Input
Amino acid sequence: MHQTHRHDAAIGSHVAFRHPRAEREIRLGNVLVAYEFKRARRRSIGMVVSTEGLSVRAPRWVGWGEVEAALRDKADWIRNKLAEQHERARKQDSARIEWRDGTSLPFLGDTVILVLDDRVTGAVLRTDAQALPGVPRLTLRVGLPHAAQPEQIRDVVQSWLQRQARQVFEERCAVFSQRLGVSVKRVSLSSAQTRWGSASADGSIRLNWRLVHLGLSTIDYVVAHELAHLREMNHSPRFWDVVRSVIPDLDEARGRLRDQILPQLD
Output
């Protein structure tokens, strides 16, 4: 989401987090928190921190004093979660792609620069082995004129990314199916918003094509995770043992995936 959903501002040495539907506010240390509040049919006070800010739900019989006491009791958690969401929103905003000549986007954990070149057909990836340290060595020549509309550029590049994703996924599924002793019937692309992949008992694997932005080690973890389901259709300790047999740094891989911020392609 964008930071337009929530106003966060530094005020001297203080910080303010304001939910767009804020009705009350409280100061927690050096943080002013304006939060959404609603009465609800529930037995206890509930708190949720999202990219919009803090939302609080409380039973009708709970007084304001008790609500504020609960917020102060959870002050550290609230401040930390608000800061995390603020940073995540900032990273998501900075990850928005401007579809033009010279823009960059992540590809297999590397950076690729788009170059509009109407002499080529479709999109062609080129590698500059002589690139200086810190300078992207990959360029994607996109067969469009410099006057092309952003939507045209996006569509060509997205189609190219999906083709690359299918190729990479099929290659990695072949590698890990052999290591795990399972049979993959079909590999297809997914555009799911909240899932990286899925597996069916018949050997069908679906993988989110947006994984192509990430490093190969992260892709391998998702592939191994889904193929492991062909042996254990659950998330039991035995399942995780299967994954760990081919992904020794399992915990680190899960952490890398959880912390990923994908580029905003729209």
Notes: The CA atoms of residues 24 and 34 lie 6 Å apart. Confidence is low (pLDDT under 50) at residues 1-13. The longest strand covers residues 31-39. Helices lie at 64-73, 75-94, 150-180, 216-228, 237-246, 250-258.
